[in-house]
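FW: tagging you since you asked about this chain on Friday. Here's the raw sequence from the shared folder, copied in full. Didn't touch anything.
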Amino acid sequence: MNSSDFPNDSRENRRINTDGEAIDALFMATEEAVTRDFLSGFQNQDVEMEERKSTEADVVKTGSDYWRDYEVKRNFKAAKHFALELHSDLKIVEKTEEEVEEEVIRDEDKSEFRKAKESIKKRRQEISTTSDMEIDLNVRRKAPSLVELSARVLAQNFLAIKSLKLVPDHLRKKLSYLVSGLGEFDTRLMELLIEDSPSEICAKNCVQLVEDDLVKIFCDCDRVSLKVLILDLCGRSMTDYTINQFFKRAPNGFPSLTTLSLQGAFCLTDNALLLISKSSPLLQYINLTECSLLTYRALRILADKFGSTLRGLSIGGCQGIKKHKGFSSSLYKFEKLNYLSVAGLVSVNDGVVRSFFMFRSSILTDLSLANCNEVTDECMWHIGRYCKKLEALDITDLDKLTDKSLEFITEGCRYLKSLKLTSNRFSDECIAAFLEVSGGSLRELCLNKVRDVGPETAFSLAKVCKMLQFLDLSWCRRLKEDDLRRILRCCSSLQSLKLFGWTQVEDTYLEELSRSDVHITGLKLTSLYAHLDNFYPSVGAKFF
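HL: got it, structure written out here
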């Protein structure tokens, strides 16, 4: 076919640069095609010619409309761009289509946490205008048990006790804790506790013991039957000298020991810990909180010796454990931990604990990350993703956490019984949404110094937390008297309540609270030391 057969096929034609020129060229080509009778074979050419002309007119009209719209849009964008350059402080960040699509979430795909937040926003007006529940406080008093009364009397007069033979271990333990709370624990009481070959020796306050006292106690007790040894605050007596002297007299150590707590043993060293670990092959739970002389070598010793058997480990507050590349690898060796506390360690961050959470935390039930300032939302995502059996969590004073962290915990940890959120920045709506979803299983909740706690949280507490026993609302200044009445009226299982810093409550109501069955500390009319036996259990308290 000759090139001249094509309409306007000239090499001298100028190049088409714009859409408008392209449309004009198209119309010209159509006219030339009609003139040269390219569309042949029709019987009624006159009729068809009229139809083509009408169609052509429509096309021309449509094309001109398109061009006009195009010019308007282009001029609008140019004007907008020019205006934004003049006023850069008012620049609007435009979202892409993908971002817009991600924000549009279908109702069936929303998490329970998000649904709870939406319902909280809807009910806000109802809370502020109506009250559909009775909030009058029913004052009720319950007499203490005979065992509790007897234990308190014995603790106050322990100097008159001559012997504890035939006294069961759980009563010895209770008596020891009560005397420790009075600050009068001494060598004589320790000798009473170790007589008659008990399987448990529990002393929470060993401040008055010295090195020779501890050596004598170790040598005199029945080490074969001893399974639990708790010697907290034994800083002055737990030294290398004490350990060396003990093993000279008893080289077999503690063959049956399964639980060891040396909290506050600030003179305990890595070498002493090595000797103890060698003499206690059955050790499963160890508490070394606030043992400031221990280094990363201590963690490596425990990992090498008990990596496959240890179930509980607390090294919180051990400031000698600095950042070291071996920390993460040693932590990874613990295969069966149910309880882990690394509170306050500067060496803990998202990267250090990531591998442990991913591969070793499937059976973890108790976790404390309090005061680990480098922990962020990423760490909370791993906890929610991999720690499905978590029952107790302490994330006190973590400045980098946002509401996203609590959402991750809500969606992943459905069996929480204890949660401490002290000094965090979670919003009132976020905490209320968490309670709506997971509050039914809570036994302990600490909201101390969470400044945004308000009516939404109080309403959710009253609505859902029927099993709550311990509650800390200290310094929650946005809560009012009506909110506290609602909580006390509806949380029927509540035993202990902390209200430090509650200056917004009137004295008449304080007098009413003082007569209630709930043990309240922190108010002007209550004693700080009145209910030490009902104090808030720490994370991991059930192991030690």
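FW: The CA atoms of residues 368 and 394 lie 5 Å apart.
HL: agreed, and The chain has a mean pLDDT of 81.
FW: great, closing this out.
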